[in-house]
Every structure is written in structure tokens, then in C-alpha cells.
Write a structure and sequence with these properties.
Distance between the termini: 24 Å
Number of helices: 21
Number of strands: 2
Structural class: mainly alpha
Strand content: under 5%
């Protein structure tokens, strides 16, 4: 593995290390592992996607089925990722697995699309949701000013980037606390909704009303409804991005997945039932902030709790996405697919500061570009494309290395069922929204020339290598970072029997 700056690290850089063994710390136990998964999944999606799911599905009943089936698909995918995570125990998730199985080009394309658009856009959507809900009480009769939401979003990003740079332990504690807070917020919605149902106010949930529709949705529209729901479920694979920082990953990685995914599916389904106990489909579709509308209708003077609760939820979501997406940049740099500076960690706090700064900067650029909410379908398409390629890699890896020791081995029916659903979903989405899906594919394919120029081309001119070396040296001095000393058993696949 060449940790050098895209294709040309110097020997001097490779030798720089801290004598006291600077390495990523294993500080993520089972509880923190569960909160990373739950905290990354429950961000802004449950407060944004219900409107899109209902709009595309056409009825309350079908919308609830979409949420249930979306959770089932996330569960199937997470079972496959549990096998991959303990068979290829590297941080980096999809990227590391695809690189190991299919080679550098395919892995780089996933990395390219994730770093360039997927995670910065998702972070921007969550940050904008945070600022919108925080400012909602200040501007009760109108939308918050455009500049105010952007400034508050950027401030939140900078604050959490500093926290993640300062301490892994502090970042995981924030994740733990805010995951509990967001579950309490959704718990409040669920309890109030169940009280409504107990009092007989569930007209929209009766079968004759729930499945009544003005139009029968096409298969393509149902596919788009699933893409909207998938945005709310995105993040179920994020613990795989920090495998090397998990305590006893072979035991805690699958346990965290088995606990978290069913819990989130249960919470999401009950939350949507609660929404429909208080709002008619027309009211939900006309609302720009579903949770706020819910609170205004049922909580009276305590309705202020809803924007505060959503802000807490999204704050934790931003922290979780920063924590995990920075590890993707770190893993990409360690494989030689990104500049070597991004593969370095602080010599005392052992945090990947350069990778965190890049993630923060990319998100702020997306924030400055403009509206991001209409990119949800398009980001979800790239997400699902990555999932499908990775899970197809699981089947290929079994064929390629049948004797490799696998601490967890799921039934072949699990990845096959997921891939069948995945192919149908992406096929019909491409048919319904060719422009949205086409743009996603184009962004991924722009990584092909970048890969051959930046990674595959090893014999770069001396002036380019000297420039990269100077930039890396300056970055090291500014961030006080060095190459980590990694334990080989944590970052290589197990030998075959």
C-alpha cells in the first residue's frame, strides 16, 4: 500500500512517525457502536422524507408499507455488511470492500462520488434542516432568511468539526447523548400519536381511507417513494467506516447492527403512524416542517419542543456524518487514492484532522451553491448504487476466495434478495427520472480520468511531486499530524485456510 500523495509520496514522508506509536484508538464499544448507527440513520430524514414518500406512493397505507419494506431492505443489507466487516476488517466501508474485491478503479469511483457529492450534500441537507428548525421560533410567520440559515449551518459544522478534531472520545460522547435525545424526541411524537389513536382519532389510518387514492401510482413512482425512504434510512452501514476504532469488532459490529436496524425501523413506522393520527394526507403534503405542524396541532403551548427536538436530532446527525465520512477520506488516502496528508492523524489526539477539514470544507461549498433538498432522490440513487455493487462483491468474493475464514456468513438468499430488489428499484428509478439518475452516473464516471491521471499514473513529473510534497509538509506543520502506525491484523484480510 502506498500512503503517498496520489502516486508520489517521498521516502521522507513515509518515515515520519511518532516514537510513542501514534495510531487510531479503539474507543467505540457496543453502546457507542449502536449510537453511531442510530445517530447516523436518524438525522433529518424522518422529518423530511414522509412528505416525499406519501407524495410518490399516493396513499397512507402504501406509504407505511414503503417505510416497513425500506427497513427490511436496510436489515438485509446490514446483514451482508456484517459479514464483509468481519471478513475484511478495514475502516472505509463500501470503498474498502469494493477496492479489496474489485480493484482500485471501482473503489475509487465509489470514493469519488461519495467525497465529491454524496456525503457533503447529505451533510448540507442535515445542517440546513438543523438551522431551519432552530430559527423557526424566531421567524414563526415566514421562512427564515436564506443567509441566516446558511450562516448557522456553517457555524454548526465548524463547531462539530473542531470537536471531532479535538477528541474521538468527546465526539462519541456527543453522539451518545444526542442519539438518546433524538430517540426521546421521536418517542414524544409516538406517545402523543398513540394517545390520539387511543382517543379514536385515527380516521386516516383506517383501511378504507388509508388505501384510498385519487391515482394509482406507477411502479416508477413507487421506486421514487423507496428512494425517499432510503434517504431516511441512509447511514445503516456507517459503523463499517470506523471498524478499526471498534472494540472487538468481530463481536460488536454484528451485535450493533442487529440491535440498531430493527429499532430504527420500529421507531420510523410508529412515527409515521403518529403523523397520520394528527394530520390528514393533504395537511402533511402541504407542510414544510412535518414535526412542527404535528406539534402545533397537538402540543399547544409546548409546541416549541418540536423544533428544539428536531434541532437536537439533526445536530447529532451532523456529528455522526462528520465522524464517519472523515474516516472514508482517511481510508482513501491510506490506499493511495487521495493525497497522503488525509491519511495522517494528530500526534496527540489521534484524530484525522486533515480528513475532517476536507469534509467540512466540501459541505460548506455545497451550502454556498444553493438549494440542496431537491437532490435527495439523486443522492439516494448513488447510495443504492454503492450498496448494490458492494453486496454483489460479497457474492463474488465468496466465489473468488471460498476458503477464506468468515466469522459471520449469512445465507446466500440474503444478498440475492437484496440484489433483486436493488435491480428493480434502480431500473424503475432510471426509467422514471432518467435525468436525476443519469447525472449521478455521470458524476461517478468523471472519476475515471481522475483515477488514471492521479492514481494510476505513477511516473509523474518531478515538479508535480515536489509541489505535492511541499503542500503535504506545510499541512503536517499546520495540523501537527503524522502517519499512524497501524496494526497489520486490523487492516488486512485474514489468510486463507
Amino acid at each position: 500500500m502506498d500512503p503517498g500523495a496520489i502516486g508520489c509520496a517521498t521516502e521522507g514522508q513515509k518515515k515520519k512517525s511518532d516514537p510513542d506509536r501514534v495510531t487510531l484508538k479503539k474507543e467505540i464499544g457496543l453502546l457507542s457502536a449502536c449510537t453511531i448507527i442510530i445517530g447516523n440513520i436518524i438525522g433529518s430524514g424522518i422529518f423530511i422524507s414522509p412528505k416525499g414518500v406519501l407524495e410518490h406512493s399516493g396513499s397512507v397505507g402504501l406509504a407505511l408499507l414503503v417505510w416497513l419494506l425500506g427497513g427490511c431492505m436496510a436489515a438485509l443489507g446490514s446483514l451482508c455488511y456484517a459479514e464483509l466487516g468481519v471478513t475484511i476488517p478495514k475502516s472505509g466501508g463500501d470503498y474498502s470492500y469494493v477496492t479489496e474485491i474489485f480493484g482500485g478503479l471501482m473503489g475509487f469511483l465509489l470514493l469519488w462520488s461519495a467525497v465529491l457529492i454524496m456525503y457533503p450534500t447529505t451533510l448540507a441537507v442535515i445542517a440546513l434542516t438543523f438551522s431551519s428548525y432552530i430559527l423557526q421560533p424566531v421567524f414563526p410567520d415566514c421562512l427564515p432568511p436564506h443567509m441566516a440559515t446558511r450562516m448557522l449551518s456553517a457555524t454548526c459544522l465548524l463547531l462539530l468539526t473542531w470537536v471531532n478534531c479535538f477528541s474521538v472520545r468527546m465526539a462519541t460522547r456527543i453522539q451518545d447523548i444526542f442519539t438518546v435525545a433524538k430517540l426521546m424526541a421521536l418517542g414524544l411524537i409516538i406517545v402523543v400519536g398513540l394517545v390520539q389513536i387511543y382517543n379514536g382519532k385515527y380516521e386516516a389510518l383506517t383501511p378504507q381511507v388509508a388505501f384510498s387514492m385519487d391515482r394509482i401510482p406507477s411502479v416508477g413512482q413507487m421506486a421514487l417513494a423507496f428512494l425517499q425512504a432510503s434517504f431516511a434510512f441512509s447511514g445503516w452501514n456507517f459503523l463499517n467506516y470506523v471498524t478499526e476504532e471498534v472494540v472487538e469488532p468481530r463481536r460488536n459490529l454484528p451485535r450493533a447492527i442487529y440491535i440498531s436496524i430493527p429499532l430504527v425501523t420500529f421507531v420510523y413506522t410508529l412515527t409515521n403512524i403518529a403523523y397520520f393520527s394528527a394530520m390528514s394526507p393533504v395537511e402533511l403534503l402541504s407542510s414544510n416542517a412535518v414535526a412542527v405542524t404535528f406539534g402545533e396541532k397537538l402540543l399547544g403551548m409546548f409546541s416549541i419542543l418540536m423544533p428544539i427536538s428536531v434541532a437536537l436530532s439533526t445536530f447529532g446527525g451532523i456529528n455522526g456524518y462528520l465522524f464517519t465520512s472523515s474516516r472514508l477520506c482517511f481510508s482513501g488516502a491510506r490506499e493511495g487514492h487521495l493525497p497522503s496528508l488525509l491519511a495522517m492523524i494528530h500526534y496527540k489526539s489521534c484524530t484525522p484532522i486533515p480528513a475532517l477539514l476536507v469534509c467540512c470544507a466540501a459541505t460548506i461549498v455545497i451550502l454556498c451553491i444553493g438549494e440542496t433538498h431537491n437532490l435527495i432522490n439523486y443522492v439516494s440513487f448513488i447510495n443504492y448504487l454503492s450498496y448494490g455493487v458492494t453486496i454483489a462483491g460479497l457474492l463474488y468474493y465468496r466465489w473468488k476466495k471460498p476458503n477464506l475464514y468468515r466469522p459471520i456468513k449469512v445465507s446466500t438468499a440474503v444478498p440475492v434478495c437484496y440484489l433483486l430488489f436493488w435491480a428493480l428499484l434502480l431500473g424503475f428509478s432510471l426509467h422514471s427520472e432518467p435525468m436525476v439518475c443519469g447525472v449521478g452516473l455521470v458524476i461517478m464516471l468523471t472519476g475515471v480520468p481522475v483515477y488514471f491521471l492521479g492514481v494510476h499514473w505513477k511516473q509523474k513529473p518531478k515538479c508535480i511531486c515536489s509541489f505535492i510534497e511541499r503542500v503535504t509538509s506545510v499541512g503536517q506543520r499546520l495540523c501537527f499530524v503524522v502517519f499512524p502506525q497501524l496494526d497489520p491484523i486490523d487492516i488486512t484480510t485474514l489468510s486463507e485456510d
